[in-house]
Amino acid sequence: MADYDAQPGRAPQADLSAAQREADEVDLNAGVRAVAGLVADAGGVDDLLRDVAQFAAHAIPGVEGASVALLQPQHVTPRIQTCAATAEFVSEIDKVQYEELHEGPCITSMQTGRVAVSGSLGSDMRWPHFGGRVARMAVHSALSLPLIVRDEVIGSINAYARTRDAFGEHAVVLGSEFAQSAAVSLHNASLLASARERTENLQRALASRAVIDQAIGIVRSRTGATAEEAVERLKRMSQTENVKLVVVAERLVDEAVRRARARQAP
Question: Which of 222, 224, 244, 226 is nearest to 235 (CA)?
Answer without folding.
Answer: 244
